[in-house]
Amino acid sequence: MSFVSDILEFNERFVEEKQYEQYLTDKFPEKKVAILTCMDTRLVELLPKALNLRNGDAKFIKNAGAILTQPFGSAMRSILVAIHELGAKEVLVIGHHGCGMTKLDSDALVAKFKKNGISDAVLTTLENSGIRMERFLKGFDKPEDGVRHSAEMIRKHPLIPSFVPVHGFLIHPETGKLELIINGYDELEEERSE
């Protein structure tokens, strides 16, 4: 049996037994928060539990390293929709210790692309189209650098309302302990006093 067959078989029982009922909610985040975080598998269940969040409490946007690579990319679009369409009032950027994006070696990743069958012609075409792999695949020296980068990009985005606080955290992927890196309330207060 394949992985997909296993999923479909389980899903059929899940629906028949109405196991979904405990997860019923609507599309609006109950706690009015959007969270940009890493796609790390260790955070899937740990992060919501460590923040006391249940299904329906927050909008989660996940990508490698919780890094926004461009101000008008899909992750930023999701944050904007969460705020303007779905009622989020605050944004949390949550990176983690031991992130795979720390000191990511873009050359080594390109070598893996090639090993997995991506041709030099494809890579050359991308380079000639303006896609610089070292920039596109850029990680960070320390996870808190990634958190600061993404939080700043969100905070300074021209489509983010000035009253939306953007907080930055690091989480320990084994214990769930949070470290506050950026207090968005303090930053809003500083902006108001200027």
Automatic annotation (TrEMBL):
Entry cofactors: Zn(2+)
Coiled-coil region(s): none
Binding site for Zn(2+): C38, D40, H96, C99
Keywords: Metal-binding, Zinc
Cofactor remark from the record: Binds 1 zinc ion per subunit.
Documented EC number(s): 4.2.1.1
Keyword Zinc: yes
Highest taxon of the lineage: Bacteria
GO molecular function, one term: carbonate dehydratase activity
Pfam families listed in its UniProt record: Pro_CA
Reaction(s) this enzyme catalyzes, per UniProt: hydrogencarbonate + H(+) = CO2 + H2O
Family: Belongs to the beta-class carbonic anhydrase family.
The protein's name: carbonic anhydrase
Upper classification of the organism: Bacteria, Bacillati, Bacillota, Bacilli, Bacillales
